[in-house]
Design goal:
Elements (H helix, E strand, L loop, with lengths): L1 E6 L2 E4 L4 E9 L6 E7 L6 E7 L4 E3 L7 E6 L4 E6 L8 E8 L3 E3 L3 E6 L1
Parallel strand pairs: 2-11
Antiparallel strand pairs: 1-3, 3-8, 4-5, 4-9, 5-6, 7-8, 9-10, 9-11
Length: 114
């Protein structure tokens, strides 16, 4: 069992920045993939960015050049630096952990106002 604790969501003006954090605890496998998905009202949940324990990253096209994912393996923590935010980024952001099982955080709200 893996538990995920998210932080860093909130309200921000268009053009602003936020930094999300997610700390994993429990039965952590040495090789895993952590990252973020998001779900906006009326839309399907989508991948935002993920990073493996070896440092390989994958980003959604919509956030490339604006968001940066990173992780601290010693802390089992993943970060998402979000810059140049726009209202289309408004969504609930869910932390993801996957080894042979996929675990989800409770979600943190990100709201970008015009």
């Amino acid at each position: 069992q893996v538990q995920l604790v998210e932080s860093g969501g909130g309200l921000v003006q268009a053009g602003g920045s936020l930094r999300l954090s997610c700390a994993a605890s429990g039965s952590i496998f040495r090789f895993n993939v952590m990252g973020w998905y998001r779900q906006a009202p009326g839309k399907q949940r989508e991948l935002v960015a993920v990073i493996s324990s070896g440092g390989y990253t994958n980003y959604a096209d919509s956030v490339k050049g604006r968001f940066t994912i990173s992780r601290d393996n010693a802390k089992n923590t993943v970060y998402l630096q979000m810059n140049s935010l726009n209202p289309e980024d408004t969504a609930v952001y869910y932390c993801s952990y996957r080894d042979n099982v996929h675990y989800w955080g409770q979600g943190t709200q990100v709201t970008v106002s015009s």
